[in-house]
Structures are given as structure tokens and as C-alpha cells.
Amino acid sequence: METFTYYPGCTLRTKAKILDVYARASAEALGITLEEPADWQCCGGAYTTAKDEIATKLSAIRTLNAAKTAGRPLITVCSACHNVIKQTNYDILHDEEMASKVNNYLKLDEPYCGETTIYHYLEMLRDVIGFDELAKHVTNPLKGKKIAAYYGCLLLRPSKALAMDDPENPTIIENFIRAIGGTPVIYAQRNECCGGYIALEDKAQAQKRSSSVMKSAEDQGAEMIITACPLCMYNLKKNSDSTLPVYYFTEILAEALGIKGDVNE
Amino acid sequence: MNKNLKEQVLRSSGVNVLKCMRCGKCSGTCPSYDEMEYHPHQFVYMVERGDIETLMNSKSIYKCLTCFACVDRCPRNVEPAKVVEAVRLAAVRQQGNNHMNPNQIPEMLDDDMPQQAIVTAFRKYIK
Ligand code: SF4
Ligand code: SF4
Ligand code: SF4
């Protein structure tokens, strides 16, 4: 049994509980325990790229430092948390002034200098467990199901900081789909934005974006679409004119591992 | 033109606007193109010209989705979204110029709206 530090983030405690519970249960089934740091704070939802913003970056650094102190890699699952945390770490490593300002403020026992390794849950499946190994644990394959992977914007970009996959021709979720027995559907809009937080203020724009993503997946014959992001889930479900089912990737993972029925949603 | 404002935006964004070759690829790939009065490549050259106030007063600064498409797809690595962000911050950091009032939020919500959308809006619109 291996243990990793796990950062769920605010939305996985509230509107996206099922993304979280299936992530934990599936990890356990694969021999990995996810342990939350004590007193974690919300990452803020969006990374502020401005160099003269320091306070907005502190919560992510506290999480990174908690993982460093525990001596473990950090696992994230929400696309937005993953994006904020990886961009923060990238800037700590590449922007000396930012690193010195945050450390001056935080006064940690030892300065945080970008030591933590961050894996998105999908990267954990690919790089720690391995998709071949994952396939061996599948008892209930999603045979023949045509599944469209939705990357959206925050999972892959900016690619130099996130370093997860080829930002234009990604394969990680498609290979995940293959590992659980499904058939991936490639479509043009898989790495374009769903509209994101604009849904709060400009519903029409979110509807335009999300409908275009869903249509693109439908046109290629998808029977379902999967995401890692609660805001994608919201937009694709609520702000599109399509009825294509949308699932969190962790839910179909739990289904494929045959443990979905054992999990309390 | 307000020279201080230009310097502030350049410093805050960390972007070298002179690297831009005006190919327009950032704007071509921007999912908010239709909603914007000024597009990402225009942000870059208007900042170069020092025409910051026009951008600060445009609704375009609230139309960027922070999707980083322009950042990844710019052939010159200009990172236009960072310019948009710096201009928006220059605007909302002005006294009394928050773009959203927390009291308005409850009426924008529905039962399924994820918290993530609200915290992101706070990050973007309120200082
Ligand atoms: S919710 Fe939209 S904005 Fe967020 S990651 Fe998904 S695609 Fe991007
Ligand atoms: S980050 Fe903003 S400006 Fe750049 S492509 Fe996305 S929406 Fe357009
Ligand atoms: S893509 Fe880059 S080089 Fe081309 S116009 Fe936009 S900022 Fe300038």
C-alpha cells in the first residue's frame, strides 16, 4: 500500500462529492491511499498569472509545502486545482522574486522551493500505476462504449507548467478509456474551453461554448463524455443543448473496477 | 498616454510585447473572440502603444475565460492572456471598481453551480 498526499479542493467537498468519493475508492482498490493534509485551504479556482500578486498564491503553496513535509507526492483531481497548484509550483521554480516574497511572508521552518512532485490523478494512473496494470484490475470493462474524453482548457495548459501531455494531441484520457475497456472518440473540441466561470455572469456565452463542445463529440459518435472538472460537468450538463451523458472519469473508473456499488455517494 | 500605467502592466504581466509579430493566431484561437471588442493580439499592441485606459474601460477584460489557448498557441511565446490579466487587475484594483459585488452572487446561483465558479469570479473580479 502506497500513501500519497491528496488535495481535494473546495468543490469536491460540496457540489462534486462524487468526483471525490470514486477517486478515493478507486485508489484504494488499486493499492493507493490518499491522505488529506490537515487544514487545507481552497486554491482559489484560478491561477493569477500577475507577478505582483502574492497573497492569492499562498494557499496553493501551503498545500505544496504540506506534501513536502509529509515527504510524499501530491495528488490532485479537479482540473482547476491541478492547474493552480502546478502553475504555482512552476513559478516558484522559475521566478525567484515570487519565491522569495512568498517565503518571506510564510516563514516556514524551511523555505518552500518547488520540491513537491505533483500528479494529477490521471497521471498517477499512467505514471505510478501504469495503464497496463490498471487494465489487469478491470473486472467490469466498459466494452465497446464510445467515450469522448473532454480535456477542456485547464487540464493541459499552459503546457510548459502543467507538463502533463501534448496539449494539442493529448492521449492520456484516451489511453485511460482503453485501459477500462472502452473505445475513445476523438473530436475537435476536446481541448477547447467550455466557458468556465463565465457561466456565472454570461450564461449565453457558456451555452455557446458548451453546446459546441457537446455537438463536436456527438458528431463523432460519442455515447458519453467524461471530465475531471466540476465546472465542465456543470456547463456541459446545464449549459448545453445536448443530452449526451456526462460523467466524472472517477465514476466510470469505479464502475470498471467493479466497486461502484460498494461506494456511498 | 499614461506611461506609469504601461509600465505597471508590463511589470505585472511579465510579458515582452515587442516579441509579438502580429500574426493574430492568439485571436484566431480565442473562444471569446465574438464577445470581445478588443482581441488578444490587440491587447498586446495596444499595451505596446501605451493605450491602456481604453482596454481598462472595455468589457473585453471580463470576457477572457483564462483558457490559456492563446498562451500555448502563440508562435512567439508572448503569452497574451497575461496581458489581459494585468490590464484587468489594473482596472479592478482601482478604488470602488470591483467588477462584481458579493451581494449579487446569490441571485446568480442555481443548485448545481460549483463553488469553483464563485471563487474564480472572486479572484478575477474583486480586489
Ligand atoms: S470548466 Fe471549462 S474552464 Fe474549467 S477546465 Fe473545464 S474547460 Fe476549462
Ligand atoms: S486565455 Fe483569454 S484571451 Fe487567451 S484565448 Fe483564452 S479566452 Fe482568449
Ligand atoms: S499569437 Fe503571439 S505573435 Fe501572434 S499576434 Fe498573438 S501575441 Fe502576437
Low-confidence region ranges of chain A: none
Beta strand % of chain A: 5-15%
| pLDDT averaged over residues of chain A | 96
- CATH architecture annotation of the largest domain in chain B: Orthogonal Bundle
CATH class of the largest domain in chain A: Alpha Beta
Secondary structure tally: strands of chain B: 0
Span between termini of chain A: 24 Å
Hetero groups in this structure are: iron/sulfur cluster
Name of the CATH first level of the largest domain in chain B: Mainly Alpha
By DSSP, the count of extended strands of chain A is 8
Q: Most extensive interface: pair and counts?
A: A-B, 45 and 39 residues
Taking Cα atoms only, what radius of gyration of chain A do you get, to the nearest Å?
Answer: 18 Å
Distance between the termini of chain B: 25 Å
**Assembly type of the shown chains?**
heterodimer
Per the CATH scheme, the topology name of the largest domain in chain A is Rossmann fold
Helix/strand order of chain A, N-terminal first: EHEHEHHEHHEHHEHEHEH
Helix content, binned percent of chain A: 40-55%
**What is the overall silhouette of chain A?**
globular
Topology, element by element:
The complex is a heterodimer of chains A (265) and B (127).
Chain A (H helix, E strand, L loop, with lengths): L1 E6 L9 H13 L2 E4 L22 H13 L3 E3 L2 H16 L1 H11 L11 E3 H9 L1 H7 L8 E4 L9 H4 L9 H8 L3 E3 L17 H17 L4 E4 L2 H9 L7 E3 H8 L9
Parallel strand pairs in A: 1-2, 1-3, 3-4, 5-6, 5-7, 7-8
Helix pairs in contact in A: 1-11, 2-3, 5-6, 6-8, 9-10
Chain B lengths: L2 H11 L11 H5 L10 H10 L2 H5 L12 H5 L6 H13 L12 H4 L6 H11 L2
The structure holds iron/sulfur cluster (3 copies).
